[in-house]
Design a protein that fits this description.
Helices cover 60% and strands 2% of the residues. With 504 residues, the chain is an all-alpha fold. It has a domain of 271 residues.
């Protein structure tokens, strides 16, 4: 009896244990079957062709998704996430409908059709309260609710977590297998960035990675700069790296050439907040203090070297930023301490503070700091009350704008729903982690949540944008699925232990 009791105890501990795989031993190299690399490559190439508006791709992508939905639910979950988010493979005008809306529709179907355990119902109830709170705050704005609802829906993207749960209803889920299956998609997207940025010098494999104003890249008229003219590629596709940071920190090693592909892709994006997010998460999600210190020292050394190299390179004649944007990004931080007036302050954060200042001034002018200006639309909002002239823009043609669109996600949330909304917003997403904190692999979700927040400081994604919320929803679902026995209550380890003790 005692032996049986010990076995049950050991099983229970294993279920609740959040230690990473091989945390106390040398981590193995991640191993992925060749066919999974082929499947990932085929899907991503078809997504690229769809982004270039190549007609056959509009048939191939749905066929691949249907096949995955029928035969491989790991691929299906990953592919749907990439499809709904676009991630610079497809753009907002690629399809006649918004993929965000299709995602919300799929999620609503899941809510109705999916048998939800108590923990999932608890999360959905919290999401309902969050949605109700921001709608109530939006009602204080003079902007019509018909306009505001177009943007409110982006704040609710976390609802996507129900879709992966629905995909694996009645099926086994292996977290380690899921992590292995993620890896090819991330590395191939990084390879696309590296090839586009430094070989093709174009926007072809990642066709929607161009900066606003550069035109539209299509299969019959691609954006091509000519070899030697290395473009900066907008980073949404590289957000997928956030999905493998925790596994790399805790469970697996990757080959040197995989690191080379990732670093080359990051150089092509030249996005400091993304690099910072990866570095910080790799540091602080290490399982041991010694590793944290080692990664911290390595990061500081590499950053110093990068700063020194970037200082010797010529400035970009168009943006007047350093070539690698390391020096210019770090220098922007020092501006905050040295700023003598608003004009100096406006230069901080690559000009993002200048973007924000007149909008925040308007917020306080109308005494809306507690409830916000509302979900203003950059194109549909016509109320002159919300139209400003931004004196900090060098481009005179763009200085008349709607008081929205701050490329610092927390500030955008504050501008939209005020202090009350920002507090509710932060509490809700922190609460989501608290709900699952005792489950195995919960730190995997935490790492993605932190990653999305840090990148959001640069405005390219955040807890209020679909691209970030899809990644958070996917990993949240993965944590729940990896703990099926606990979450769904099919294995009540604690009860079994108690009963066994009584028998003993």
């Amino acid at each position: 009896m005692t032996m049986i009791s010990h076995d049950i105890q050991a099983q229970a501990l294993q279920i609740s244990d959040d230690k990473p795989v091989a945390a106390d031993a040398k981590k193995p190299y991640i191993q992925v079957e060749r066919r999974h690399w082929v499947n990932a490559l085929l899907f991503l190439l078809c997504m690229s062709m769809m982004g270039l508006k190549f007609p056959p791709a509009y048939l191939f992508v749905p066929l691949i998704l249907i096949r995955s939905l029928r035969k491989d639910h790991y691929d299906a979950a990953i592919q749907l996430t990439i499809f709904f988010g676009g991630y610079a493979l497809i753009g907002k005008d690629t399809l006649p409908f918004k993929t965000d809306d299709l995602m919300l529709l799929a999620s609503l179907v899941g809510i109705v059709a999916y048998h939800k355990p108590p923990l999932v119902r608890k999360v959905l109830f919290g999401l309902l309260l969050y949605a109700a709170a921001i709608i109530i705050l939006a009602s204080f704005s003079e902007e019509s609710m018909s306009v505001q609802i177009r943007l409110i829906r982006y704040y609710l993207g976390f609802i996507y977590f129900i879709v992966p749960l629905m995909l694996f209803a009645g099926r086994d889920f292996d977290m380690e297998e899921f992590l292995r299956r993620l890896f090819p998609y991330v590395i191939i997207v990084c390879a696309f960035y590296a090839i586009d940025g430094y070989v093709l010098c174009a926007h072809i494999l990642i066709p929607n990675s161009y900066i606003a104003g550069e035109g539209v890249s299509t299969f019959n008229d691609p954006i091509y700069y000519g070899f030697g003219n290395f473009p900066r590629k907008y980073p949404p596709g590289l957000f997928l790296i956030g999905l493998i940071i925790w596994p790399i920190a805790n469970s697996y090693r990757i080959r040197w050439y995989h690191w080379l592909i990732i670093l080359t892709a990051l150089m092509a994006s030249r996005t400091f907040t993304l690099i910072l997010a990866i570095a910080l998460c790799l540091m602080f999600f290490q399982p041991k203090i010694k590793r944290i210190l080692g990664y911290t020292i390595t990061a500081v050394v590499l950053l110093t070297i990068g700063y020194m190299v970037d200082s010797t390179m010529p400035l970009n004649p168009e943006s007047e930023e350093s070539t690698l944007r390391i020096k210019s990004s770090l220098d922007q931080i020092f501006v905050l301490d040295e700023a003598k007036d608003d004009e100096d302050l406006a230069e901080a954060g690559s000009g993002r503070i200048g973007q924000a200042l007149p909008k925040l001034e308007l917020l306080y002018k109308y005494d809306k700091q507690w409830t916000g200006l509302g979900f203003l639309h950059p194109e549909l909002t016509t109320n002159t009350k919300y139209i400003i002239e931004n004196e900090y823009y060098s481009d005179i043609e763009k200085n008349i704008e709607v008081a929205t669109g701050i490329e610092i996600s927390p500030l955008q949330v504050f501008l939209t729903i005020g202090y009350i909304g920002l507090i509710i917003h932060l509490i809700f997403f922190i609460w989501l982690y608290v709900v699952i904190r005792k489950l195995k692999y919960s730190k995997y979700y935490l790492s993605v949540m932190v990653f999305v927040f840090i990148v959001g400081l640069g405005g390219t994604m955040g807890w209020n944008q679909t691209t970030g919320l899809l990644l958070m929803g996917l990993t949240y679902a993965a944590v729940l699925l990896a703990n099926k026995d606990n979450v769904w209550g099919r294995l009540k380890a604690s009860t079994d232990i108690s009963n066994q003790r009584n028998l003993t």
